[in-house]
Design brief:
It is elongated and about 110 Å long. 43% of the residues lie in helices and 18% in strands. Strands 1, 2, 3 and 4 form a four-stranded antiparallel sheet that branches. β1 (66-67) and β2 (73-85) form a beta hairpin. It has helices at residues 2-7, 21-47, 52-61, 93-103, 110-114, 127-135; strands at residues 66-67, 73-85, 119-122, 141-150. By secondary structure, it is α+β, with helices and mostly antiparallel strands. It has a domain at 64-150: Penicillin-binding protein 2a (Domain 2).
Length: 159
């Protein structure tokens, strides 16, 4: 065993590269500050609410107007409102039936209001009728904004 100890010679292997503690701490501090800046920016952007996805969907649905060579509009894209009602949320069904009969005399809503499913009262409702319905003060009405294609001359093509 003595023989092994004599052959074993330990020398400290030190390179000529000497890095001081101040340099290492400065580099660590700079790296730490950059990490904190990027982390805080990522957290800020994560909590920020944007409507960017909604505008992209609307642009995809929007179509340009079609005009003939004389400048008459053949087809146009417009915003419309669809009005629906949920019968489960109604308070006074009889009063609402009478009010709807005054606003829409040609329609009968008894079967739909006594049901349990959501239904549309009127699609592409005019702003005047929509205002009358809002004045009723019923909370069960649901408005849906939509984009629709309108053909003013009721023709797909003109001669």
């Amino acid at each position: 065993m003595n023989n092994i100890d004599e052959n074993f010679n330990f020398e400290a292997n030190r390179s000529n590269l000497k890095i001081s503690f101040e340099r290492i701490s400065f580099i660590f501090f700079v790296f730490f500050i950059i990490t904190i800046i990027f982390t805080s920016k990522t957290i800020y952007l994560g909590f920020k609410k944007t409507n960017q996805t909604q505008t992209v969907k609307e642009k995809e649905k929007y179509r340009a107007s079609i005009m003939d060579r004389n400048g008459n509009i053949i087809a146009k894209t417009v915003r419309v409102t669809n009005l629906g009602i949920n019968p489960n949320q109604l308070i006074n069904k009889e009063k609402l039936l009478i009010s709807l009969k005054l606003i829409f005399p040609d329609k009968n809503f008894e079967k739909e209001i006594n049901g349990k499913k959501f239904f549309y009262v009127k699609k592409k409702i005019s702003p005047a009728k929509l205002e009358k319905i809002k004045l009723l003060g019923e909370k069960s009405f649901k408005e849906e904004e939509n984009i629709a294609r309108v053909y003013p001359k009721n023709l797909l093509t003109m001669n």
